[in-house]
Design a protein that fits this description.
The structure is a homodimer. Chain A is of the alpha/beta class. In chain A, the strands form five sheets. An eight-stranded mixed sheet of chain A has the order 2-5-10-6-13-14-15-16, with helices on both faces. The first copy, chain A, has a two-stranded parallel ribbon with strand order 1-7. In chain A, strands 3-4 form a two-stranded antiparallel sheet. In chain A, about 60% of the residues are buried. Chain A contains 13 helices and 16 strands. The radius of gyration of chain A is 20 Å and the shape is globular. In chain A, strand 11 and strand 12 form a beta hairpin. The termini of chain A are far apart. The first copy, chain A, has a single domain, classed as Alpha/Beta hydrolase fold, catalytic domain (Rossmann fold, 3-Layer(aba) Sandwich), CATH 3.40.50.1820.
């Protein structure tokens, strides 16, 4: 019943895979690497975090002038493995039972979550660019997060991990690139929360970013989106196995609550018509309803449970909480005196915005608001709204139509 | 921060209360009564259920010819108290801690959930009609449901309660009205799941229903709606306190899971613009974010938690499961050989459909599909789509604009 592609992204679980944009190559087999930052990172909450390890992958070749770097930022449940085949799964979290054997068969080992966009001849063309992808701060796929060891106690941070922001993620990425000897970015790109990071880069480090590509993203999540994220977090925290966040090493993990969180998220990533087209009201059993409360009766019910079950095997609940909190906090106007124009006042990067007509979680209106604010300031910006039916997941699916837009923008 | 009206309906928790339609009276103080059916009701699942007690209220006066009866059917979390002030709270469930003292201050004692629509001079005019409202089969507000005592064991049914359908609810209402000596209905009316019951009445008992009023309802929930209901049920069943449904008398109830279910439901009852208008991205604290994962930071987060907390005090989790399952099963085409035309072939009632432009859970398209099927059969039907911003909750809020439509229809 389920497409294999549903899991390939290891991320938003796209449902339908359109044909690729053009004949393009693969970056081949890649390996996630790890780098320890030498200095603490000062966070928005006032704390200095140290040590910080960053998981990352790179694709393509760094030019001698180091001027061809594109940083790719992932969304809520992604990781550093953005392209190619993984040589080995990313470093294991300390989360109980979160081992390679349990992990979703495709999430850690298969194709990267944006493989259709990164590679020779693809949107982010590795014949030309050196593409860098990191697991974000607070993550559970190799970068320091709540499941990492707190040096003060020798045990995982859990809820003692500092509450982080999108700006903190960006500062960590900046410190990480310093260690790679990379000062400037030809572009920073991402979808959803990844697009938030891209926008934040242009504001925090205006002299070091030539171009921003923010896809299916926003300057501030709308209240209904905040509500869904709040419900997802509450679902995790209401699970008694969460234990106030101190579940590591207890043999109990809040899989029940995180499964519900994932199901809520999953429905918000899809459009209602996409769910109708894929499942309709088809029953699981061939003939008629079976009069059961506990069993899945309809295909859509079974599909959601599958999404929940596979997600909890590869993701840490505290990372979900911290990342969801960061994307809910993100509000460029609030962070800059109340207006988007003030937020973007110092931006020098060219900006490309892409939104999708059926995305109701990060609707096109958010992108056009950004376009208008940048335009009012005379900043170079272009915004494309792609008419596509899959909802927020389009940014993982609509490679064919994003590719020429991005390639042209990066040439400009 | 919260409108008192948010709780008054005891049901969908409307957020904003428009001005009443016209100066109309109240039905005054009313008392919920109880009636035990003398015979078992044969259910769709094949089981005979007995005994069945039905909680009900009546408003207005039965005409000597008994030809002025309107049956009002409630939605997922409603009860028999549809209008007037409650003289006493409905009979207590056996659910632990589910006593009058815990119950939401307004839900059981205050105004009925459709008080703005039922009364002298109102849409359902008690100067003319005898309005009957029952708690549906499977309920937890006086009518027999999973929290009732199973005569076979002397303990609450819990998960041994038979899985019920909308048709079973209607058969129970039919048997109940028999006991009241009421053979014909001048009309049967309801919103959401209540509208499903109204449509089912016209199909099951075509010779006994003169008119159907189905508001913000559908002939079959769309797949995204099925997904939300599935998530809500899974949230309850994943709560360890649910204990496979055998939580009565254990001192533990699945409030955590049902709270999440309610929050999911609540967001689906509202439109995204309504949430934006009401809360925006306003912080709970006056100045800035407080860097907290566990505390509500935004007003919308606090509001949802309040909705969850007040709901679990007045509602039984198993009733939620059974009722949600029934409304997910409801599919008039599937139940009648695959087509709506077949389903409606025997209908003789006039039908009034009302939908709301911003209702994305029971969208106007569902009502127009019903209108087209009835129209193709030459059945008398009218469909009104009201342009209103509050989402599915409009059927509880938009009294002013529903009233003239319903009054005119009932005169016709």
């Amino acid at each position: 019943m389920l497409d294999n592609t549903s899991e390939r992204a290891g991320y938003h679980s796209p449902m339908v895979k359109p044909a690729p944009a053009l004949v393009a190559g693969s970056v081949g087999t890649v390996e996630t690497r790890y780098l320890d930052l030498p200095e603490p990172v000062r966070l928005d909450c006032g704390r200095d975090l140290h040590p910080i390890r960053v998981a990352y992958e790179t694709y393509g070749t760094l030019s001698p002038r180091r001027d061809n770097v594109i940083l790719v930022c992932h969304a809520l449940s992604g990781d550093a493995h953005a392209a190619g085949f993984a040589k080995a799964p990313p470093e294991q979290s300390t989360r109980d039972g979160f081992g390679a054997d349990d992990r979703d068969g495709t999430a850690g080992k298969g194709l990267g979550w944006w493989d259709g966009m990164i590679g020779p001849g693809k949107a982010f063309d590795t014949d030309r660019f050196f593409v860098v992808s990191t697991n974000l701060l607070g993550g559970c796929r190799g970068t320091t997060g709540p499941s990492s060891i707190d040096p003060a106690t020798g045990r995982p941070y859990g809820p003692d991990f500092p509450v982080i922001t999108v700006a903190d993620m960006v500062r960590t990425e900046r410190a990480f690139l310093d260690e790679l000897g990379i000062e400037r970015l030809a572009a920073v790109a991402g979808g959803s929360l990844g697009g938030m990071q891209a926008l934040e880069w242009a504001i925090l480090f205006p002299d070091q970013v030539d171009a921003v590509i923010a896809i299916a993203s926003t300057h501030a999540l709308h209240p209904q989106g905040m509500a869904w994220n709040s419900i997802a977090r509450d679902s995790i925290m209401r699970d008694p196995a969460w234990q106030g966040g101190h579940y590591y090493g207890t043999g109990r993990v809040p899989d029940a609550g995180m499964g519900v969180a994932r199901m809520v998220g999953h429905v918000t990533y899809l459009s209602a018509p996409a769910l109708s087209d894929k499942f309709g009201r088809r029953l699981q059993s061939a003939d008629d309803v079976r009069y059961t409360i506990t069993e899945a009766e309809f295909e859509v019910e079974s599909y959601l449970r599958h999404q929940a079950d596979s997600f909890v095997k590869r993701f840490d609940a505290n990372t979900y909480l911290y990342t969801s909190r960061a994307l809910t906090y993100f509000d460029l106007a609030r962070q800059h005196g109340g207006s988007l124009e003030q937020a973007f006042g110092g931006v020098s990067a060219r900006t490309l915005l892409i939104a999708f007509s059926s995305d109701w979680l990060y609707p096109p209106s958010a992108s056009t608001e950004i376009e208008q604010a940048l335009g009012a300031l005379g900043k170079p910006v272009e915004c494309h709204v792609i008419d596509a039916p899959y909802g927020h997941d389009c940014f993982l699916l609509e490679e064919a139509r994003q590719t020429p837009i991005i390639r042209r923008f990066l040439t400009g």
